[in-house]
Design brief:
homodimer, about 220 residues, Jelly Rolls, three-stranded antiparallel β-sheet, 8 helices, 10 strands, DNA-binding
Chain lengths: ~220, ~220
DNA sequence: TTATAATGGTTGCATTTGCAACGAATATAT
DNA sequence: ATATATTCGTTGCAAATGCAACCATTATAA
């Protein structure tokens, strides 16, 4: 049922039915269901598993030094969370909360970290897929850091748009955020973001409608 | 000669002489020397290796959409670069340039990605060390994203300081940046950073001398 | 020593941006 | 259908911050 979602994850993409079944077993995959508002972990214990969101949305956050909550990630369908902490068996004061009703596929890396004598070629391939997942994660985080490092909203937007444009090979693309999440991703205030988007549209640099954006002549001004 | 530097890298820490030798061979390690200003890669070709800086400092950057150069990383002694791109064999328009005279240990992940029939237990262990390196990298990038996501310089500094304080388990610590690099890391203007640091000192929240910082009562105000 | 470069602090100013409040439009639930 | 919640844009205002220019101090080189 969740087949399509699984195949979106690099761990399980392009596997035969038999291989998929083996992979799920290799990562000790078990499905669990949560209701809106449920907590997925105990803060006191280190993460023994990482998760793949099969349906719904979950949020990872930690308490800030001044008591506020720092949102670390909103994780939607097909995306994973906690891989690094799980692999490193690192303790971290993170809370994982289900924003909607959700289904999570919990997995662990025990078979990678504690290989037995029968570690086979396909085990190595699966371990490499896990590594590739982390590598992809660092590249995605790097993209975000590029954006966040820009000093002005305008520059952040230009970087953000050009990344999407490159990724899709097109001047026109849809982004997976609403304005609120977009502002969070860019690290700016929502209304200031709206204002800057309006300015850029006035200047003829971009056009947009809801999540659909079009780059017109981003190089022209500035 | 570079023994101490190697052992700082998770790939090579706590290895016997014999194991170290095997690890170097496993990653096809070869040393190369560069002069200040030398380029370490050809932009047109994908990265076939990742690097460990044995001495000196190198910089990774790419051309921005508007022709400016985006600095992606300053890599100092003992730190690595290009692991993700190398492992994924991903092409990316990055420039790698030596800021000083430098010595680089080039390595690759061929033995991980193309395991032969004799893939042994210690090969698995080394592959896992590589994975752990990536996992650590994502955690470090996450810390930086936490900081960059804050909207004010004050909040960025508070987050930055509390990370260091947690890491060293002390209210007093030394940071590895000069003011310029610190401003870049925090994603703010250097003089604005100096100004905010001065304010925080006036308010008795922190004290500092050069790279030596002391948190006094960061919780008090705000 | 002297000269030069690098580093860090200070400040005036213009601009940007966060913030709050509000309203319109749309979506969702009852 | 009606009510309610969500999303998005707009705007006035105050505060934060980028920017540039300058100076002091320290480090480095000649």
């Amino acid at each position: 049922m969740y087949q399509e979602i699984l195949t979106k994850c690099i761990l399980f993409s392009d596997l035969s039915k038999e291989e998929l079944s083996y992979a799920l077993q290799f990562f000790s995959a078990t499905e669990k269901f949560y209701e809106k508002g449920d907590f997925l972990n105990k803060v006191t214990a280190p993460l023994k598993s990482f998760g793949l969101v099969l349906s719904g949305t979950i949020q990872v956050y930690m308490d800030d030094i001044d008591g506020n909550q720092m949102i670390m990630a909103n994780v939607g369908e097909g995306d994973t969370f906690g891989e690094s902490l799980c692999f490193l068996q690192r303790e971290a004061p993170v809370y994982i909360c289900s924003l909607t009703d959700s289904a999570i596929l919990w997995m662990n890396t025990d078979r990678i970290k504690n290989p037995d004598a029968h570690f086979t070629y396909r085990d190595i391939v699966l371990a490499n897929r896990f590594t590739a997942m982390l590598a992809n994660r660092t590249l995605a985080m790097n993209d975000r850091i590029q954006i966040l490092s820009k000093l002005s909203i305008r520059d952040k937007l230009i970087t953000f748009f050009s990344q999407y444009s490159n990724r899709y090979g097109s001047q026109e693309f849809e982004i997976p955020f609403d304005r609120n999440d977009m502002a969070t991703y860019l690290g700016v205030n929502r209304s200031a973001l709206s204002r800057e988007l309006a300015h850029m549209r006035e200047e003829g640099i971009i056009d947009f409608h809801k999540n659909q954006f079009q780059i017109k002549n981003i190089f022209a001004n500035q």
